[in-house]
Amino acid sequence: MLFNSLQFLVFFPAVVLLYWILPDRWRNPMLLAASYYFYMSWEPVYALLILISSVTTWGCGMLMFRDHDRRKLWLVLCLVLNLGILFTYKYLGFAAQSLHDAMTAAGIAMHVPEFTLLLPVGISFYTFQAVGYTIDVYRGDLKPERSLLTYCLFVAFFPQLVAGPIERAKNLLPQFHDVHRFNGYNLLEGIKMMVWGFFMKLCIAESVAPYVNAVYNNIEMHNGVSIWLATFFFTFQIFCDFGGYSLIAIGTARCVGFTLMQNFRQPYLARDVKDFWRRWHISLSSWFSDYVYIPLGGSRCSTTRHQRNLFVTFLVSGLWHGANWTFVAWGAYHGALQVALSLKRKFIPWKFPLQRVGVVIGVIVTFVLSMFGWVLFRANSLADAKIAFSRMLHPHGMLFNGDGKPDIALPLLLIMLLMLHELRNECGTKRMAFTSHPNVYVSAGWTAVLIVIILLCAKFQGGQFIYFQF
């Protein structure tokens, strides 16, 4: 099993301490060894897949630079190999099952072999990071990295290895060549980011998870009211689980002198669905924009083709999240919302006369639309999603159908604290609310209060981070 939160709390200080006491020339090798150890704690043999991805993309980058006439050939071979590995481990079983279902529905008796490969943790993340590097080298936007060791560290850097952010080579690779000097401010800021990330994960995501699982894993046994509450809770569970991990990753890197890109920026305060995707999983959104949407033609084309480009990009993004038709439907849902907003802006350029009221209405509408989308994301099947939608449209009954009453007061209070933090950040301050202050003593005090809240409210026996499965 990959490190849980408590194991990481032991692993992280050891890596930071080693990093700052080792001579400069040994720091990158130590980080590489720590990164592979971190990943091999889950399934040692699958570290070979990261190594294969690293060596092939690095080698193709060097070949494209030296053999300019055949650089497209090297790019295609590299993409086929790396995306082929991703398809084999993540989508082959799904494709075989879908083919079998389609044949059965058509009345054709055909034996389709079953594939039950164990999905490597984080394979979508490190594959996209490595593929992005290769495309950048092919386009001439980036010179190939000459050091294989440095490049392997770029692909396997442990803070963001298994769940992002999906870093760009132009941002992260040069940092491995810099000589980092100890900076107390960076260390404290990194720790504060991590503390807030652990608060999001352990206090909010884990506290609402039991209710969400109880409802969505037995959807037929629940009514509209309980499904609405479970969906509301999952809306914050997915944000606090994934957003919390991103903050932990960014904070961890910050402690050893590295700057990772921001992955979330107050997504539930977005004013429309386009704004939502500028704030949610920013590293993936920008990756698909640069490597899928723009190559398809982006918005510099006819209206029909532009809408097609939008829809296809989000459809592929949905499939990236998992080998299940629910994720495809989720991507199609957000693609349809993007198309609808684009057409509305083009043909009905009306804006609400009262700007502030319009903003509030836009935030509420966008939040509700994202909640409906999360039904597709969380449901175990399209049939379960259909039941959930039908009962949400006719809400009645109790909050929970089962023995005992769920404790929802504390999760709601913690969610309120989270949204106050988000609102303060949205209102102009660039400092982290509650934990940052110009006065270091006040800042440390707020951080101490937050640590106490974590110790009192955290659920330490929870499961892995949700996005580890992607």
Mean of all residue-level pLDDT scores: 87
Largest sheet: none
Number of helices: 18
Report the helical percentage: 55-70%
Strand share of the residues?
under 5%
Sequence-ordered SSE layout with sheet pairings:
Elements: H1 5-21, H2 24-40, H3 47-66, H4 71-90, H5 92-105, H6 123-139, H7 148-156, H8 169-172, H9 184-216, H10 224-255, H11 273-279, H12 282-296, H13 303-321, H14 325-347, H15 355-378, H16 382-392, H17 409-426, H18 440-457
Helix pairs in contact: 1-2, 2-7, 3-4, 3-6, 3-7, 4-6, 9-10, 9-17, 9-18, 10-15, 10-16, 12-13, 13-14, 14-15, 15-16
Brief summary:
This protein has 470 residues and is mainly α.
Task: Describe the overall structure.
There is one protein chain. It is globular and about 65 Å long. It is built from 18 helices and no strands. It is an all-alpha fold and 470 residues long.
Supply database-style keywords:
470 residues; mainly alpha; 0% strand
